[in-house]
Design goal:
By secondary structure, the chain is mainly β. 0% of the residues lie in helices and 52% in strands. Strands 5, 8, 9, 10 and 11 form a five-stranded antiparallel beta sheet that branches.
Length: 133
């Protein structure tokens, strides 16, 4: 993407307006929390990046993503702890489905995704997060 920029050029004798074409740098994608989806045309799946912010997992050591996609295994999908204290994990999920999930923190407490696509009640009197791909 290019944009036109007007810049004033100063010289000893006069002030002259000069047109200059500069390339606008694309903004980098940043994720502060929540879900990021990248759809893959090659195999009909979606790379879903789960991210639990530091505020939701203060002082946590181990966080796993637990859901329909792993038969609610509390050990299978361990997240990586980032330098900023957040946790992240990317999974390839088949498209055209909704997946219930939650985060399991230090093998003792559950947390929902604050930016899930929706929430649905579960059998335990709480809600599950849902990602739609």
């Amino acid at each position: 993407m290019k944009k036109m920029v007007m810049k004033k050029a100063e010289s000893k004798s006069a002030s002259v307006s000069v047109r200059k074409t500069v390339s606008a740098k694309p903004k980098a994608t940043t994720i502060s929390r929540g879900l990021k989806k990248q759809y893959l045309k090659s195999n009909g799946s979606c790379k879903v990046t789960f991210r639990l912010p530091k505020e939701a997992a203060a002082d946590a050591q181990i966080v796993t993503v637990v859901g329909d996609f792993n038969n609610w295994s509390i050990t299978e999908n361990r997240m990586k702890k980032l330098k900023d204290g957040a946790f992240t994990l990317t999974l390839d999920l088949p498209c055209n489905r909704e997946y219930r999930f939650r985060y399991f923190i230090d093998s003792r407490r559950w947390e929902n995704d604050w930016s899930a696509d929706k929430y649905v009640p579960n059998d335990f009197g709480t809600d599950d997060s849902v990602v739609i791909v």
